[in-house]
Amino acid sequence: MANRHLSRSVALQSLFEWDFRGKKKGQLKKVTEHNVAEFAPGMDDAGFVYSLVIGVSENLDEIDAMIVESAPDWPIEQITVVDRNVLRLGIYELKFAKADDVPPKVAINEAIELAKTFGGVSSGKFVNGVLGTIYKEMGEPRKNE
Fold first, then answer.
1. Averaged in consecutive runs of 10 residues, what is the pLDDT profile of the chain (145 residues)?
2. What is the Cα–Cα distance from 77 to 19, expressed in whole angstroms?
3. How far is it, in rounded angstroms, from Cα 121 to Cα 11?
4. What gap in Å lies between CA 129 and CA 43, rounded to an integer?
5. pLDDT of 44
6. Contacts from 13-21 at CB under 8 Å and sequence distance 24+?
């Protein structure tokens, strides 16, 4: 599981850089390749990193709409780049990923840990609140796992 956490960290760093540089088409793969080599040298399988970043990018409009709906007091462009991309990653894992081996609570907890590690003082609480709202709106699937 430590590999999954590292993969999520690299995915977050890649999404952050891609977003910060203007989300240019074709750049995400290159950014991710560089970050895997830089932050996870020797990683056995970077497939999970790529599935996360590609999944977020392919569902970006719908994910961002969910952020806007769940955090109406925070226009998406005013959310810090770190928090915005942690939310994107968390929402992707909650709503779109086909990872049956990752219960929703694990996806939420991983996002909170990323927010605490890479974000500001209140990032963990903010991410927890937004993802918690989305999870409840989804009907709390797999709640008892």
1. 84 96 90 92 86 95 95 90 97 85 88 96 95 87 66
2. 11
3. 21
4. 32
5. 78
6. 13/39, 13/118, 14/49, 14/53, 15/53, 15/56, 15/85, 15/88, 15/89, 16/81, 16/82, 16/85, 16/118, 18/53, 18/57, 19/81, 19/84, 19/85, 20/81
As a whole number of angstroms, the distance between CA 59 and CA 11 comes to 15
51, 46, 132, 20: which is closest to 87 by C-alpha? 132
**Structural tokens at position 96:** 């779109």
Which SS3 state, helix, strand or coil, does residue 97 take? coil
Q: What is the DSSP letter of 77?
A: G
Segments of the chain assigned E as strands = none
d(CA 21, CA 125): 26
pLDDT computed for residue 2 by the predictor: 62
In this prediction the pTM is 0.92
Question: How is residue 87 written in tokens?
Answer: 């939310």
